[in-house]
Amino acid sequence: MSRIVMNIRVVCLALLSVLALPGLVAADVVIDWNRIAEMVAPRFGGPQPQSRVQAMVQIAVHDALNAIDPRYDRYTSLGLADPDASPDAAVAAASRQTLLGLLAPLPSSPAKQVAIDTVEAAYLATVGPGPYDALTQAGIDVGDDAAAAILALRVGDGSDAPNPPFTLPPGPGVYQPTPNPEFPAVITPFGAAWAHVTPFVLRHGAQFEVEPGAIFDLAGARYASEYNEVKQVGSARVRGLLPNSEESDIARFWPGGGSNWNLTTREIVSSRGLDRWEHARLFALLNIGQADAFIANQWWKWTYTFWRPVTAIRWPDDGNPDTASDPDWRPFLVTPPYPDYPCALPASAGAAAESLRQFFGTDAIPFARTFNAPAVPLPDAMPPLPPKVITRSFESLSDATAEAQSARVYAGIHFREGCEAGARQGIQVARFVAKQSLRPTKGKPEEAK
Questions:
Q1: DSSP assignment letter at 394
Q2: What is the spatial distance between Cα 145 and Cα 200, in angstroms, rounded to a whole number?
Q3: What's the pLDDT score for residue 185?
Q4: Are 335 and 415 in contact (CB under 8 A)?
């Protein structure tokens, strides 16, 4: 079989998979392409790089639409476009060109090719094969220009900087790469370089101070209380013996389910009657807020370099008589490769929830999410927990943020104070983003902006 035929087959399969997505070209084009960007983002690594990709795509989408009809301030210096240009073509082109531009430097791999094919198939599903009429082409042109603008703006933002060598010597309270069996024999701590990535809206990663934690005093009562809490409720053995408890479900739901705020937001807006411009602004604010929260979060993590529970609980003697060590203790879930304080997932949840609060003007947004949680390996001779469908329901955005904090304690990978600090930080960041960017034009003449 020729390579051309094979490539055509791959694209056709990708097109079929894109068309099979629930709601594709049934909600609106902004929603459709937010879903496509979410599918492609994992090619770039963990949650921090993914947040950058998604923020860039949503900025391009937002600016393309607001070049056609300027309802909100644009993020980039993109000029005005033909007011009759096709909005759908603009969104598709902005998303496509941003994603392909970001994918281009990645090493060749089957996963990269699948991502490219997915993007091209979605583009074909949105605008068709061409040739295009004048207004469709005008939409494509402004979308391409919006993508070029954000790609150029983010060149040299530090996102491709390598992690510096890890040199922290072991000691009480000091972060160390987490031991087996949570990780392979050799791991590379992440995030010290990400702390210096240029934020999208924040002035710098340290703009909102995260004060030192009371748990930093290893001899104190607060540290002993939180140490013993996570040692008990976050133990893999305890959770493995209570596989269907609410605590176990919460711990498993949040890493891949609750943390996907793009999906949550798509479900929240599904029945609210928002138009493409409103969707574009909301998803841009959401993803900018999360991206900047992740940058700020790493700044403070690597400022304090506080140890993870697994290191603390296995430490022979931290000097506190109320913290008995256990050299065989294991957390329920895998410990991420960076320091504890402040916590990243609650920071992201806090930022997402505040973005939604700022947009809708209320915290009272009930929602439910269902997640197919993967299997969880357990220590010793305990059988792994099988995959499980988990549904969590929330009466408000604050309820969801609070549960995200507890989830990391139940997972055995964070002390509670760090989770609380992370959520506060995320809220501060997202509030600043919403106040400073993508504001309604309020009838301002374009030349006065």
A1: E
A2: 19
A3: 72
A4: no
